[in-house]
Input
Amino acid sequence: MKKRIVLRALLGALGTVMLSAPSFAATYDLTVDYVEIDTGTMKTRGIGYNGSSPGPTLRFKEGEEVVINVTNNLEEATSIHWHGLILPYQMDGVPGISFPGIEPGETFTYRIPVSQSGTYWFHSHSGFQEPDGAYGSIIIEPQKREPFKFDREYVVVLKDKHPHSGERILRNLKMMPDYYNRNQRSLGDFIMDVRKNGLGATLSERADWGAMRMMPTDIEDVQGFVGLINGMSPDQNWTGLFHPEERVRLRFINASAMTYFDVRIPGLEMTVVQADGNNVQPVKVDEFRIAVAETYDVIVQPKDDKAYAIMAESMGRSGYGFGTLAPHEGMRAEMPELRKEAPLLTMADMGMNHRDMGHGDMGSGETGKGDMAGMDHGAAPSGNSAMGNAAMDHGSAGSMPGMDHSGMAGMDHSNMAGMDHSAMAMGNRADPFYAAGSGLTPKAANGGKFLSYADLKAQKPLYADRPATREIELRLTGNMERYSWSINGVKYEDAEPIRLKYGERVRFKFVNETMMSHPMHLHGMWSILDTGQGKWNPVKHTININPGTTVYSETEVDEPGQWAFHCHLSYHMATGMFRKVVVEGGPAVATLKNGN
Amino acid sequence: MKRHDLMMKGGFVAMVMAVVPGTGQAAEGRTYYGFQAEQFEYRLGDENEKRLVWDADAFWGTDELKLRWQGEGERDLDADINEGLENRLVLQTPISDFFDAKAGVRLDTPTGTDRWYGTVGIMGLAPQWIEVDADLFVSETGDGSARLDLEYEGLITNRVILTPSIELNAAFSEDREIEVGTGISSAEIGLRLSYDLIDRSVAPYIGVSYERKFGDTADFAKEDGEDFEATYIVTGLRLMF
Amino acid sequence: MPSFKKSLIRHIATSTVLLSTLAGMQAPAFAGAGHSGGHGGASTDIGMPGQLSDVRRTIRIVMEDNFFDQEKIIVRAGETVRFMIENKGEFVHEFNIGTAAMHADHQKEMFMMMEHGALEADKINMAMMEMDMGNGMTMKHDDPNSVLLEPGQSAEVIWTFPKDTELEFACNVPGHYESGMMGKIRLQ
Output
């Protein structure tokens, strides 16, 4: 990749002064190519950038304008979406929404005024090019010093590389939704369950699932992948070097098509300092789960002169990525023991508890008092008696700004254990972002601290906290048997766009009525995840919603134009869990053309 | 989620393999296609009869509307005749979360008498993972008949699968020309043990199949000097592409 | 555990040592050394509170989010230094002189304080306590090797360093030390 720093003539004369606003333009050239992806055990034809997959790491500076010339060397149209970047909508790279796409042989010039910093990524938004390898990472250096210190840094891009092309995977899923599920319960499991629980209980449990025609093993639609770290399989052992005592910043990006990873570095605590490119108040964890399309930046400080494993086991335990942090070249960390036992969904994930709680309570204009009553009601059946107390503590202390209008409501359906401070002190509170009793609730391999959304607090709020002007309910819906996914029961091609008004603050209520987790990604504008912490609510671009839960996020509608809003699981997006968002009003958007 | 909810049976057909349209993800309704041979097997009977049997299906279409071909046949390798040869072409649309309705035509062209039928039916997944294909037929001679196919896939392991199946045929009136009497006319019960050799694409299996004709239909067979029941050892491949 | 919480908050200002007792945690380094200046009997010699009259040098330390403006402090063995510390950040920060092990133990205490609401990201919940919070004298008398400052506050610490101990200055607010809000103190 060539990078030409072109100082604008006038500003160039000013010399080295740090300037705000677009002070200079950096130019990048990217080609989109067919490439060979070799994991050591399989070679497939895929799509990459500048001749390789993953593509390069683009390094931008906050305040500059970047110009990126993208040349399509494929025999099909392509596009690049700059995931998480705030930019004019014509530069957002979604064919049919932002622009027509980039035809074979064409060069499209993106011009992006960079107004943020942090870790992001880019990928094709055309067909299944992204699952097929069209992704790369972005680092944006901030203008100001960051609220943490590190001696060196690495991008750690996770990918679920599959031997089948994306097109073929979707066709197989359509023929047979469990085509790739090789973790189904078999006769052996049945016998074990009978031994453990008795014949009657086992039959009755099987009958419950059978009646729904759902499977508790339905956690990963697409198994059979190899986890890649920076394009390298566990055998190929991506290695990042360090000197003992150094602080190493790891910029984790989950560029997978379908797979969530549980990430840990045995022997090291990780201090999470950034989520989705935005700084968060540092939180020490032993392990974290990264949903598809999310990013987390962590700082580790390896003190010993030895190799440490970066272990990324998939949520359903059907695959893993592995790499090494090493003090010297040529080292390979000892492989941690794999957690072979795959999680099983429970009736809680099927939304059974969810219905008990009743969404009706959650209309507009809730008051803190009403919410608490609602919470007690909701939490009691699921056995979280601690909840009520915790909520009251907050109320009397008055220490949670904004909680009355939003905070507690956000926690409602997903059970309130996270608000229980006494439980938190024990370090093993239930994660409020999973349904009470969910089979997906993660546990750290070492029994320690597993990151929850509830731990994420904005380091410096991007927006003043204010009440949302309105709420939009988005039920995440689907039919696993037909492998079709939708929002409010309507697929993209049949749906009207979501219309937002420039200047409003809209509150999205995500109700997950499916048995799968969905990472919902709104393009072009930030999603302020409601963790019940008012102004400290973290600001993200991708919000994961687990089965049987309701999650709220708020968006300051501050970018005109039209945007995509979708589940970032490739085959959920492709089959209809997708919406166009139209922002009406606001400053007229200058007509931007292909810079050529 | 259970296997083959959307496509139950399969066969061989030359289909126009449509390319999934569009470059923008989810930009428009996608078109899908698929082929599956649930049975493609050699049968050896208890009296040393040899048969080649297939039961296959292919589809092309969207979530809302599919064109489906279903074909089955039985070739008597001893006599070199087609005992049965049946092709169906139906349009299919969802009517509930788990079931589709379908309607179309069926043409039987075995060695002997041909028949055209009009057909309506449903197919889908019943509770407890039972795959159902139920059809009504009215032939060109005005005779009505019905067929019910049930199948269950039991996972011995995640690759070794034991599949019991049953097919029941009934006729509402007699059609002597094709040797079908009124009432339950015939049944076939099978049990196949397969191994997923290459993904789900190729799965060799062995099994047993028991066929029996009933009532007048059985009598017609006896009059013709044919067996009204037979048991076979079967071996074959389940295919999916 | 509301009653626990109340008592915790009541006691936290008068003696953070009590916190560890109440929380049922064992933190000998913290209890002994972390506050050794005020109570004497340090197991590790980290120095002691100094007298203004002995001060030859003043070091200004600015706290930002989440770092100190200095990454290393060099003092002479046995020197008495006045630290003038100002919190220019938007979060609560601590300036604490101790060994790495003491800081590690103290971080557990601070984590508890935050989990129990005694400490929030941007404020110290001691308003209900009759303490002068206006001039940055927080906990000074009880905790001479450290100060905990809200945004905008400043304070001073006068410290007489020992002859040779590996010391660090650090902010032990949860996550801050790990983020690099610490520095070495080199004794010459």
In short: Chain B touches chain A through 38 residues (CB under 8 Å).
